[in-house]
Amino acid sequence: MPVLTPKESASNKVYINESKTQEASGTNAIVQLRSVTKSYPNGCHALLDINLELTKGEFLFITGPSGSGKSTLLKLIYGEELATQGEVIVDGYNLNTTKGDHLSKLRRRIGIVFQDYKLIPQRTVAENVSLVLQAQGYTRKEIQRRLEPALKLVGLVNKANSFPDKLSGGEQQRVSIARAIVGTPPLILADEPTGNLDPDNSWQVIDILQKLNSFGATVIVTTHDENLVRRCNQKVLQIHSGRWVK
To answer: Which of 30, 42, 109, 168 has the greatest number of CB atoms lying within 10 Å of its CB?
Structure first.
């Protein structure tokens, strides 16, 4: 199993133009974390001096026990939280300075898959998946054009009119994936996507994420399932107590 070594990126020069950055080195990185620390007012350090450079089109597992900092790392990447120190640069945007419309624009380019699915119980599968496109102002015709391929990819075309409580846990997670990718984002973040699933459903979810990666999407998956990681033969980083394990 190949292991990705955290890349020191302090030598790369960055030119900042408002929120968007241009890399002087010509790097093809879509995610860069430079000496990132995340601390909370109570003195707890969730992340300590994290460096990471992820190239467009890569697939990365981030492993570690519960509370090791995996979810915090993803929250920094999609801008839910800000780094206490260091820089987080995603798709050319420096999240230290990206706000308002710029942040909204970036988030439309990131698909997020959560462990607990976060589906709306009163909405059908098709409606749950379509909501993200409605929020982005797509026309009804364009939503319909995008909806079926997304559901087909996750094997749920025949469940389009079902409500979440009529689905298994694996099916609900596949709806979550369809919702995350219906807008064809170049970056997909999956936070413990198999945490509530049995081995067969877990593999089905990871297989879909690997297929999306084969289509060109960059994928980051956090997990504590070492067996699943070994089976996939993808690049891996381990984190423990907020630090990379070398």
So the answer is: 30
CA dihedral angle for residue 99, residue 105, residue 106, residue 112, rounded to 10 degrees: 110
- CB hemisphere CA count around 135 (13 angstroms): 13
Phi and psi of 169, rounded to 5°? -60, -40
CATH 3.40.50.300 is held by the domain 57-80+99-245:
yes
- Decide: pTM greater than 0.85: yes
* CA 227 – CA 86 distance, rounded (Å): 33
Query: pLDDT by residue for the chain (246 residues), tens digit each?
Result: 444 444 433 333 222 333 444 443 446 999 999 999 999 998 889 999 999 999 999 999 999 998 899 999 999 999 999 999 999 999 999 999 999 999 999 999 999 999 999 999 999 999 999 999 999 899 999 999 999 999 999 999 999 999 999 999 999 999 999 999 999 999 999 999 999 999 999 999 999 999 999 999 999 999 989 889 999 989 999 999 999 997
